[in-house]
Amino acid sequence: MALRLCRGCAGRFTRPCVISSKSVSGRGKNDSLSGKRWFSVLSRSPVGHGHRMSVDTPISQQFRRSMFIQTQDTPNPNSLKFLPGQDVLGEMRTLDCPNIEAAGASTLAKMLFKIEGVKSVFLGPDFLTITRTTEDLEWTLIKPHVFATVMDFFASGLPVVSENAFSGSAAEADYGDDTETVQMILELLDTRIRPTVQEDGGDIEFVAFTGGVVQLRMQGSCSNCPSSTATLKHGIQNMLQFYVPEVESVEEVTTEVDEVNDQEYQKMEKKLEELRQKSHDNKENT
User: Has this prediction a pTM greater than 0.90?
Assistant: First the structure.
């Protein structure tokens, strides 16, 4: 039985027994059939709902003819999901790069950070999510650069991540003493929750289970999303408690990197506001 769940993060997991993948119909006002915006990739002239990008070599030209990139809105207004029409990491793998320092294992992520206005990059199984620095920066200024970067990278044939990109990631999680309960939690996360969250360009990472509390880290579009708290408490927590009585609550945890990024972001927002106010005052004085 398929169930079309609500648009936002919150309301997705109200009935755990009927969770399923949802349609994206109606998300994009430019495409009445799928709700996604399509981009073909041959020249810079507008075609349909997208743009065709210029090419340089016969090899890249042949590759780009067969590559179509879609964009999809997320519940986070500062994050946009890009679907290149082929695997990015594959096999339910994800890589969260909140800053360029965390992108060392991915050449693609490092290239995307060179684009002005990119705050963070999240790589998923068959998509990537870009989070912009501020809402004042229009997506129309960022998207063409992302399209060109993604197409050039995949045309190069380079691996998205290095071979040791995921080594040691599982060891960071704290399974505690109750490994049986943790295995049940992990299975629910992987089979019922993560696929749905990834459809919105994000992911959740299990951190620890201690004292009846499940600690999770929000990634991609879920990080700093206005709906993330509702997703945790009214969605993920309800589902885990329904299937695993040992779960008392679910909490979000952040890393020191996340905290530093938030502090820097707030400083930048404050500086931009001061510049806007100064510009406004100058106009009034003249």
Answer: no
